[in-house]
Amino acid sequence: GGPGGGGPGGGGPGGGGPGGGAGAPTSPSPHAAPMLGDIGKTSVTGADSRTGNSFPVGENIYGPFEAGFSAAQDNILRALGCSSGKGYVVGGIDTATAEQMMAADCGVTLPRTEGNNYISLLDECGGHTADYHFHEKMTCLYEGRSTGHSTKVGATNGNQPIYGKWEDTAAQKLPVLDACGGHWGRTPQSPGTDVYHYHVQDKPPFTVGCFGPNDDGSLVTVAQCRTFYSGCDGSTMQVTTPSGVKDYDDWCPCFDATGLNAGAASPAASSWWSM
């Protein structure tokens, strides 16, 4: 985890946008995605079938992190089932891990359904708040729209395409991705030429871990990803979830195949790209 520091962060190729925020470290690398705020925007519409909420083109897509949950977020935490003073989580923790830390601290199950209410830090489409933004899933923007390669859901700040999670929907085949969450391949928009593009993932970093590929066009390893971010400094904390205790490097969006962002880098998420 990095030192506290606010201010604008790296932004990626063509990328800009604030990379800081309360306590978020900044990183000079052009491959570093913003820690808080937009890493991209959606390019299609969708709707939450449970609530009927609709999503216009241009919704914000964030990376995996939140700024943290403290007394200022007591109303949010209370709605999740936390009693006063419970469920607080520091900034720089991915949304899925943060939610499970809340579940453990508050003695509740998250997510859960009560009646027709889906109770979670994020809605079933993977986003939240009145100033709506996506962190995860984005299923409402692509499910049921293709039997092959998932359809496009958005683009990064540098206009690189982001797709739903499937390489082949009918075969339930997931793509092999690098540490940024991208790979080279054909897409519905580029059926004849390989292009570097991202896929949404069920595990962190969910959307974009960094702006790939490497400058030479190669895929980004976990170890390379960690050099892009000042937050990947090896300074770890222990986080407790219902499934146990694990080491976690706050503000480090570079996760290996086992879902860890701390310790020796095993291959990237969903990937055989290793050290």
Summarize the structure in short.
With 275 residues, the chain is mainly β. It has helices at residues 74-80, 95-106, 222-227, and strands spanning 38-42, 46-47, 54-55, 60-62, 112-114, 117-119, 127-128, 133-134, 152-156, 161-163, 182-187, 190-199, 237-241, 244-248.
Written account of the structure:
This protein is mostly beta strands and 275 residues long. Helices cover 9% and strands 20% of the residues. It contains three helices and 14 strands. The chain has helices spanning 74-80, 95-106, 222-227, and strands at residues 38-42, 46-47, 54-55, 60-62, 112-114, 117-119, 127-128, 133-134, 152-156, 161-163, 182-187, 190-199, 237-241, 244-248. It has an eight-stranded mixed sheet with strand order 7-8-4-1-9-10-12-11, with no helix packed on it. Strands 2-3 form a two-stranded antiparallel ribbon. A two-stranded antiparallel sheet has the order 5-6. Strand 2 and strand 3 (54-55) form a beta hairpin. The longest helix is centred in the middle third of the chain and has 12 residues, at 95-106. The protein is globular. It starts with 37 loop residues before the first strand and ends in a 27-residue tail after the last strand.
Strand order of the largest sheet: 7-8-4-1-9-10-12-11
- Strand pairing plus helix content: what structural class? mainly beta
H/E element string?
Answer: EEEEHHEEEEEEEEHEE
Q: Extract low-pLDDT stretches.
A: 2-21, 271-275
Task: Profile the largest sheet.
Answer: 8 strands, mixed
Give the CA-based shape. globular
How many E-type strands? 14
What's the number of helices? 3
The share of residues in helices is under 10%
Radius of gyration, Cα only, in angstroms?
18 Å
What number is the mean pLDDT? 89
- What portion of residues belong to β-strands? 15-25%
Distance between the termini: 20 Å
